[in-house]
Amino acid sequence: MVKFIDSLLNFIYPPACPLCGTPVSIHGELCADCWTSFEWISGAKCARCGYPFSSDWEINGVHLCPTCASGNGELDWIRSACVYDDVSRSAMLPFKHGGRIGYARFMSRAMIWSLRDIDVDADVVMPVPLARRRLFHRGYNQAALLARPIANALGVPMDYDSVRRKYRPDMGHKNARERALNIHGVFDVVHPERIRGKKILLVDDVMTTGATFSELRRTLIRAGAAAVYGVTFCRIARTV
Ligand SMILES: [Zn+2]
Ligand SMILES: [Zn+2]
Predict the structure, then answer these.
(1) Residues 6+ apart with CB under 8 A from 32
(2) What is the per-residue pLDDT for 240?
(3) Helices (H), 129-232
(4) Would you list the domain boundaries of the chain?
């Protein structure tokens, strides 16, 4: 029956690449051309921050980039599916601000793929919270759209209301230091009993300077979280 409904739906709405409209075999999937235009992070990477980093340099048998080796990594580990460039930006902006929520399908699938080399032991998946005022204007939290399929794939619950985010004006193009100051104290744990002792996998669409993750991690650890991990669709490439 499900198969019949599926074929009926495919007949009425033939699956098409969400980015360019080329016919594909499965709803929500990218066509081969669009798929290959992204810079997927698939090779050697830092064991902690996931940054593409190919070198034989290891510390105590762990492959770490210089930033993480110097103790400046943001989370216990973080992975991203692809590099933030013109291609991923052209998908991210309509997804985040233009209501193209259907993109969550291929994005979350790529994020699950980015976790393939990790034994994920998270107890809960948490989308990076959006301030209520932003949620009201945008109508959805793009991080929550990505977090739901990831929580389902990992078989763990999603927590989207234990932490609240205060509204702060847009960070725009501020530098790393200004972003860190702007985000300081922005998160409040409203259900600490749900955080205590938990290993939490944070989900967001993009990682830029890592200031948001750092601040959220600090807030969660202070509330008693046992570990804080992260996964994003894309990340800004930094010099390591
Ligand atoms: Zn396409
Ligand atoms: Zn690193």
Answers:
(1) none
(2) 45
(3) 132-138, 142-154, 176-183, 192-195, 211-222
(4) 75-235
- How far does residue 232's CA lie from ligand 1's centre (Å)? 21
Q: Does domain 75-235 have CATH number 3.40.309.10?
A: no
Q: How far is the CA of 63 from the centre of ligand 2 (A)?
A: 8
pTM score above 0.70: yes
Least distant ligand from the CA of 32: 1
What is the Å distance from ligand 1's center to 33 Cα? 6
Query: Residue 207: pLDDT above 50?
Result: yes
Look at residue 165 and give its three-state secondary structure: strand
Does 58 have pLDDT greater than 70?
no
Phi/psi zone of residue 197: left (φ > 0), alpha (ψ -120 to 50 degrees), beta? left
Residue 113 has pLDDT above 70, yes or no: yes
What is the H or E stretch that residue 164 is in? strand 163-165
Q: Would you state the pLDDT for residue 60?
A: 65
From the CB of residue 167, how many other CB atoms can be counted at a distance below 10 Å? 11
Which ligand is nearest to the Cα of residue 18, counting in written order? Answer: 1
